[in-house]
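Hi all, posting the design record for the shared folder.

TITLE: backbone redesign
STEP: 1 of 1
STRUCTURE INPUT:
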């Protein structure tokens, strides 16, 4: 069975480590980090969606990514 390929558009969490003036940190932390991830759909349920990037003829996979539903903005079938 051929796996379904999708694009997931989602907002990633972000952080910063260096010492930063409070004003600059407030401005930087207000920027949304929108991510477009493309892969094969492995699993989806009410809490998350899991993609993987590669699969082998022997039913092995590589490069999986779990994205919480609350972070997902859109899923597009490719």
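Okay, here is what came back for every position:
SEQUENCE:
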């Amino acid at each position: 069975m051929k796996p379904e390929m999708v694009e997931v558009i989602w907002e990633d969490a972000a952080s910063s480590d260096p010492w930063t003036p409070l004003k600059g940190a407030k401005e930087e932390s207000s920027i949304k980090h929108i991510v477009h991830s493309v892969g094969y759909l492995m699993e989806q349920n009410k809490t998350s969606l899991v993609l993987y990037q590669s699969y082998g003829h022997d039913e092995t996979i590589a490069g999986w990514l779990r994205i919480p539903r609350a972070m997902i903005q859109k899923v597009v079938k490719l």
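COMMENT: DSSP finds one helix and five strands in the chain.
Let me know if anyone wants the other runs.
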